[in-house]
Amino acid sequence: MSNRPLEELRTQLDEINMELLHLLSKRASLVQEIGEVKKRQGVNKFDPEREKKMLDQLVAQNQGPFDNHTVRYLFKQIFKASLDLQIDDQKKDLLVSRKKQATDTMIQLGTTKVGNGTPQIIAGPCSVESEEQVFAVAKVLKEQGVSIMRGGAFKPRTSPYDFQGLGVEGLKILRKAADHYDLQVISEVVSPSDIEMATEFVDVIQIGARNMQNFELLKAAGTVNTPILLKRGLAATIEEFLFAAEYIVSNGNANVMLCERGIRTYEKWTRNTLDISAVPILKNESHLPVFVDVTHSTGRRDILLPCAKAALAAGADGVMLEVHPNPSVALSDAKQQLDIPSFEAFMAGIKQSIDA
Ligand SMILES: O=C(O)C(=O)C[C@]1(C(=O)O)C=C[C@@H](O)C=C1
After folding, report:
1. Where in the sequence is the signal peptide annotated (predicted)?
2. I need a surface site. Which of 63, 165, 202, 313 has the fewest CB within 10 A?
3. Which residue owns the Cα nearest ligand 1 atom 1?
4. CB of 229 closer than 6 A to ligand 1?
5. What is the number of other CB atoms lying within 10 angstroms of the CB of residue 151?
6. 210 φ, ψ (degrees, to nearest 5)
7. Does residue 50 have its Cβ closer than 6 Å to ligand 1?
């Protein structure tokens, strides 16, 4: 049997493809013109009513063999592609994206530079509990050459009955210890109305995982110049994470650091699952510095060091972890904070791997 008819049919299809392409391109040019008109008039580019009218018209004229559902689907794809054409290319690239800025963002914290290739360690207690506790940790950080201290003063806790933090008193303690030992200090803020106040006490404001999509908080963080450490939400995709950072940057604060802190999966042997792949993806997609919180992602003291090494090997600009003078009596995260000798051992391991 000859396959001539098949070839003939295919030749005909090729011709129709060309006609379709020609018509689609003609349509696309018109859509671009409409886009220009809409821009001048300040009209919204997306017009669902117009789309519905066109789809209804098309379905009313449809004589098959495609069913109405398929006709709607095919044209909806054309409208979507058309809308993409109308949206400014500029707007498609986020400010936090590598496409917008090829060079790495570096953040100056006192004499410390974040994002210049030298890994930074952020360490300190989960919660600020007392002056004595914070000073004990600050002293060890100084001895170990760590220049950024963390400590929670406003604690977003799962249970309302758990310790909620010392609030402003906690920030004052952190500032006092940081000044005494010449450290930079980072602490979480949970309310938009506290952002301005926190800039008086801290060098970096943290926005925690539970608030990653608290858009009012993100906007408020964009109105100050104090650097922000934004943690990835426990169920946030990398795209959602970058959009959250975009809220801060687009509101005026370009000093943003990202922090992977583990995502929630079905795995029970770690507190969360450390998404190590997020590190190179974030570094490729964005110019912002990337940290990994090994304490919250793992919830396990015994694997902090290998996970920290993995984070740095994957390209992270630094690692965050919790250290407490006496973890067993800590008011939060008692199970996962390192005591001081373990922290010293951790630092020895990290230094060894950095020097190697
Ligand atoms: O008619 C318009 O207003 C257009 O912008 C064109 C068009 C289309 O492709 O047909 C594109 C996007 C809108 O959502 C609706 C329709």
Report:
1. none
2. 63
3. 50
4. no
5. 29
6. -70, -20
7. yes
The residue ranges of every structural domain in the chain are 4-92, 107-355
pLDDT of residue 219: 97
Find out whether 350 and 285 touch, Cβ atoms under 8 Å. no
pLDDT value of residue 2? 53
Task: Answer left, alpha or beta for residue 315, where phi above 0 means left and psi between -120 and 50 means alpha.
Answer: left
112 DSSP β-pair partners: 109
* Ligand 1 site-directed mutation target among 53, 82, 87, most atoms within 8 Å of CB: 82
Q: Identify which of 342, 286, 296 has the alpha carbon closest to the alpha carbon of residue 319.
A: 296
Evaluated on CA atoms 147, 152, 153, 154, the torsion sign reads positive
**pLDDT score recorded for residue 217:** 98
| 170 sits in which H/E element | helix 168-181
Taking CA atoms, 298 is separated from 241, 275, 276, 318, in Å, by 20, 10, 12, 16
Q: Does ligand 1 have an atom closer than 6 angstroms to the CB of 55?
A: no
Which residues are paired to 108 by β-bridges? 113
CA 230-235-237 angle, 5° bins: 70
Q: Which CATH number fits domain 107-355: 2.40.40.20, 3.20.20.70, 3.40.50.2000, 3.40.50.11540?
A: 3.20.20.70
**How much of the chain exceeds pLDDT 90, in percent?**
87
Rounded to the nearest 5 percent, the helix, strand and coil shares of the chain are 50, 15, 35
Homologous superfamily (CATH) of 4-92 is: Chorismate mutase (1.20.59.10)
- Which strand (E) or helix (H) includes residue 113? strand 112-114
Give pLDDT < 50 ranges for the chain: none
Q: What is the ipTM of this complex?
A: 0.94
From the number of C-beta atoms within 10 Å of its C-beta (0-12, 13-18, 19+), residue 97 rates as middle
80: CA distance to ligand 1 center in Å?
9
pLDDT at position 86: 87
Amino acid present at 90: Q
